[in-house]
């Protein structure tokens, strides 16, 4: 009997880990801040807009805009400047900001792909992982074209396809559905805390990329520079969704 109980416990534990074993089949990448550092271009364009309205907008303020849609970003900025405007004026301002932003991203080249991304995508392909993009940006396709990564993504879900912003899980759930992969078999890579919340809400593994305080992420990496896919899976080992 004394021997029987530990054996039973081991059997139960093995069964538990068998049932919950990781079976990663797809990776879904955020764009801005994960694949390319476009946050600096968003910041310059938003700051120019704020200045044109008579107030300043700091880099710290800019952190609040990561992963947030264009119109919601504008609302945050107008709130900082204590401005109340009607919808048509807001649309004009959002268009103006986007025109300035486009001036930056149309100049982008593959040199602006963040370190480690290309080799990581290569590795995923050799391991037959499915790859999707899940971005709030309406400029995602243009950005990927400019840095010559468009053909690396089988599925692209961006701000032109979604109706709800992160932390709503819609963008990632649409990505998984289009790939035909169950959410529990997907990993999301995100630089925004709202994106991490969205991935968790979608029932996916969530990896925080960068230096933010990702309290809800399953794991955090500073960048893709010194990690490969096996390293990512090792970080996730033992975590559950
Ligand atoms: P756009 P992501 C997001 O992209 C950015 O992080 C966020 O700052 C931006 O406001 C949003 O896209 C909308 O971008 O004005 O180009 O449609 O991080 O979800 O890839
Ligand atoms: Mg981002």
Structure overview:
Helix content is 45%, strand content 10%. By secondary structure, the chain is an alpha/beta fold. The chain has a 6-stranded parallel beta sheet with strand order 3-2-1-4-5-6, sandwiched between helices. Helix 9 (193-201) links the parallel strand 4 (186-190) and strand 5 (205-209). Helix 2 (39-52) packs across helix 5. Residues 15-19 have low confidence and may be disordered. The chain binds 1,6-di-O-phosphono-beta-D-glucopyranose and magnesium ion. Residues 30-33, 42, 65-70, 73, 98, 135-139, 159, 192 line the site of 1,6-di-O-phosphono-beta-D-glucopyranose (B16).
How is the secondary structure organized here?
Elements lengths: L3 H16 L6 E4 L9 H14 L6 H5 L6 H11 L6 H19 L11 H10 L3 E5 L5 H7 L8 E3 L12 H10 L6 E5 L2 H9 L3 E5 L9 E3 L7 H8 L5
This protein binds 1,6-di-O-phosphono-beta-D-glucopyranose (B16) and magnesium ion.
The site of magnesium ion has 9 residues, from loops.
Compact description:
This protein has 241 residues and is α/β, with parallel strands linked by helices.
Number of separate helices? 10
Poorly predicted regions:
15-19
Reading the helices and strands in chain order gives: HEHHHHHEHEHEHEEH
Mean pLDDT: 93
Helix vs. strand class:
alpha/beta
The main pleated sheet reads as:
6 strands, parallel
Helix content range: 40-55%
Bound small molecules, deduplicated: 1,6-di-O-phosphono-beta-D-glucopyranose, magnesium ion
What's the Cα radius of gyration? Answer: 20 Å
- Strand tally is 6
């Amino acid at each position: 009997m004394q021997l029987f109980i530990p054996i039973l416990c081991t059997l139960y534990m093995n069964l538990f880990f068998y049932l919950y074993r990781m079976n990663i089949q797809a990776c879904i990448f955020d764009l801005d801040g994960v694949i390319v550092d476009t946050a600096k271009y968003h910041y310059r364009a938003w700051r120019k807009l704020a200045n044109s309205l008579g107030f300043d907008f700091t880099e710290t303020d800019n952190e609040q805009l990561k992963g947030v849609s264009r119109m919601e970003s504008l609302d945050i900025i107008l709130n900082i400047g204590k401005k109340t405007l009607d919808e048509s004026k807001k649309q004009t301002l959002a268009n103006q900001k986007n025109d300035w932003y486009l001036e930056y991203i149309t100049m982008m080249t593959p040199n602006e792909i963040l370190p480690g991304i290309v080799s990581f995508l290569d590795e995923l392909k050799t391991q037959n992982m499915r790859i999707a993009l899940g971005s709030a940006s309406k400029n995602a396709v243009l950005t990927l074209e400019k840095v010559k990564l468009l053909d690396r993504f089988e599925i692209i879900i961006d701000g032109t396809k979604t109706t709800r912003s992160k932390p709503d899980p819609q963008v990632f759930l649409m990505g998984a559905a289009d790939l035909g992969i169950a959410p529990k078999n997907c990993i999301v890579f995100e630089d925004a805390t709202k994106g991490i919340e969205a991935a968790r809400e979608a029932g996916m593994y969530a990896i925080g990329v960068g230096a933010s305080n990702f309290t809800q992420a399953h794991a955090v990496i500073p960048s893709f520079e010194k990690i490969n896919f096996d390293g990512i899976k090792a970080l996730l080992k033992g975590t559950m969704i």
